[in-house]
Amino acid sequence: MWSYILKRILLMIPTLIGVLTLTFVVIQFVPGGPVEQAVHDLRRGQTEGGGGGFGLRTHTGVDAQQVEQLKKLYGFDKPPLERYVSMLGKFARFDLGDSYFRHQSVWSLIVSKLPVSISIGLWTFFITYLISVPLGIAKAVKNGSKFDVATSLIVLVGFAIPGFVLGVLLLVLFGGGTFWQLFPLRNLTSDNWATLSLGGKILDYLWHITLPVVASVVGSFAIVTMLTKNAFLDEIRKQYVLTARAKGLSERRVLWKHVFRNALLPLIVGFPAAFIGAFFTGSLLIETLFSLDGLGLLSYESVVRRDYPVVLGTLYLFTLIGLATKLVSDLCYVWVDPRIQFEQLER
């Protein structure tokens, strides 16, 4: 086992370097870099009320000395290879650097955005599994019935509706858009949250998070539900189930003692990836729609602003977490199903 884990960890290093190298090379050719963004901001700041107060531009450009100062500030006065090696050295020490425009370290930015992403992600994860797994089991047991057909139609319709469109509909219905003002439209808590009692804080938080979570979770039901149903159907049709029934075991005992354990293997193995992914897969559109400042919005704004330390830092961190999660998922195969050996995973 330990040799397999060591091999996988060693393989993570070239994968990380490859992802960072490709992104770094692409960045070198992307127009409108941080220096150009800063120059644009300086030029815009030089536009003042002049010529009778009609907002005419009094300065038409930024001199070469200022541009050189900006290049030095952002590190672009050094050759690309030197900047690349410096970046890898910092990332090896888990130093993600500082944002160009936010005047904060990348670590502090990520930590500050995590509450939103954790709130949406974890609620989506738990609600999805709490509803989809029992529903999938019920659909497998009643396969082909009216219940199975009706629930399949409902979950597939929910899957087909984009979360952003559903969010707009929820805002129109319950956010004061046209009908009822039942839920707030921004932030995770109210302005007076600190003054509320413990029970009041919990209710206030749930009040704010309801619409974003509903918009995020509806589209997630179909995949887990159908995966659970198909896994149970595959097990129910196997020979050992027929043998158990022939021995006179009750249907409940056959289902929960024999089928349940084997059918949930794919879901259990996928738990680590789904759980960790809940932190970092926040929807940009959902966050924008409900005015929630999370990791999705941070990543988008960083790309638009060409804030390369944030772009590369978050990419490095998310890639590392993704690789580690894949390793844990592979290990779960062996821990959950003793029939699988590490030698099989290495092939």
Please describe what this structure looks like.
By secondary structure, the protein is mainly α. It has a domain at 112-306 and 320-345: Orthogonal Bundle (MetI-like fold). It contains 16 helices and no strands. Helix 5 (106-141) crosses helix 8 (198-217) and helix 9 crosses helix 11 (251-263). The longest helix is centred in the middle third of the chain and has 36 residues, at 106-141. The two termini are 14 Å apart.
**CATH structural fold name of one domain:** MetI-like fold
Look at the structure and give the CATH class of one domain. Answer: Mainly Alpha
Class derived from helix and strand content: mainly alpha
Major β-sheet annotation: none
- Give the helix tally: 16
Protein name: ABC transporter permease
GO cellular component, one term: plasma membrane
Organism: Caballeronia arvi
Membrane topology: Multi-pass membrane protein
